[in-house]
């Protein structure tokens, strides 16, 4: 009798999940309110690319995806998820892409991603993240792309040091004021680093130490007044392009910076300023 009741309940649960989800040749889409009626998604047939529609989803239940282990891409953007609990992503051992862009996350805890050891791309942009546990990324060492733009970070998170395969790091539009020495240690495969629209006033010596593969560096829209070009090119020997527009450089200082980068075959991207006090479209202050 008990088995029959349990089986009947399971069948109803699967039917409810299937009614809230639909599949095309390429992906499976579930409405955001699917998790109102079920804590664990159960689908007879689903695609590796799973999207939860934009809406008012505030929380992912523990074990929400443990019965869809073949999912490799999970899209959760445009919801109101405020936390990522330790078991929320249980079962997603083959997950390669996770998109949590435009939610309401405030922190990334120690074991939030412990079930995602195959993860290669992680988008946490446009949240309210102010803190990231130092070991938050220790289980996602295959990560090559990390977006932390449009958050509330005041420093480069120590947690990134656990990402030896990272190639692209976006830290735009945060509140970072200082780049500390060796702050990017361990990222010896990083090729692109974007720090535009922060509050940068200081870049310590050896801030970019270890970034031997870095090719593009974006420092636009900050409050930089000086830049030690020799220190940067010594640490970032593969640097090909740097963006410096909209900072607080004096014109004489900016001219020296541009000349030094040119001598080292580093392209400084032109700005768009038409102000009389500008060089190559990069605004500067006269004495």
From TrEMBL:
Presence of keyword Signal: yes
Tagged with keyword Lipoprotein: no
Record protein name field: Uncharacterized protein
Gene3D superfamilies noted in UniProt: Ribonuclease Inhibitor
Domain of life: Eukaryota
Alphabetical list of InterPro entries matching this protein: Dev_Immune_Receptor, Leu-rich_rpt, Leu-rich_rpt_typical-subtyp, LRR_dom_sf
Cellular component GO terms, alphabetical: extracellular matrix; extracellular space
Alphabetical UniProt keywords: Leucine-rich repeat, Repeat, Signal
Family annotation (Pfam families): LRR_8
Species: Dendroctonus ponderosae
Signal peptide coordinates: 1-19
Matching PROSITE patterns: LRR
């Amino acid at each position: 009798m008990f088995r029959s009741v349990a089986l009947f309940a399971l069948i109803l649960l699967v039917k409810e999940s299937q009614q809230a989800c639909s599949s095309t040749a390429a992906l499976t889409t579930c409405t955001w309110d699917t998790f109102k009626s079920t804590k664990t998604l159960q689908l007879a047939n689903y695609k590796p690319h799973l999207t939860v529609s934009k809406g008012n989803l505030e929380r992912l239940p523990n074990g929400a995806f443990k019965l869809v282990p073949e999912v490799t891409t999970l899209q959760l953007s445009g919801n109101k998820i405020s936390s990522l609990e330790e078991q929320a992503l249980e079962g997603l051992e083959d997950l390669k892409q996770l998109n949590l862009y435009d939610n309401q996350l405030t922190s990334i805890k120690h074991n939030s991603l412990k079930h995602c050891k195959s993860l290669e791309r992680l988008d946490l942009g446009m949240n309210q993240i102010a803190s990231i546990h130092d070991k938050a990324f220790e289980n996602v060492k295959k990560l090559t792309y990390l977006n932390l733009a449009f958050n509330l970070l005041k420093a480069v998170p120590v947690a990134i040091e656990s990402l030896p395969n990272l190639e692209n790091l976006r830290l735009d539009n945060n509140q970072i004021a200082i780049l500390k020495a060796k702050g990017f240690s361990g990222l010896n495969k990083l090729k692109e680093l974007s720090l535009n629209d922060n509050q940068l006033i200081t870049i310590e010596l050896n801030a970019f130490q270890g970034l031997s593969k870095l090719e593009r560096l974006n420092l636009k829209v900050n409050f930089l007044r000086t830049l030690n070009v020799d220190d940067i090119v010594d640490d970032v020997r593969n640097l090909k392009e740097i963006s410096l527009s909209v900072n607080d450089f004096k014109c004489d200082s900016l001219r020296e910076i541009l000349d030094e980068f040119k001598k080292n075959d580093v392209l400084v991207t032109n700005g768009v300023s038409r102000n009389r006090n500008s060089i190559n479209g990069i605004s500067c202050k006269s004495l």
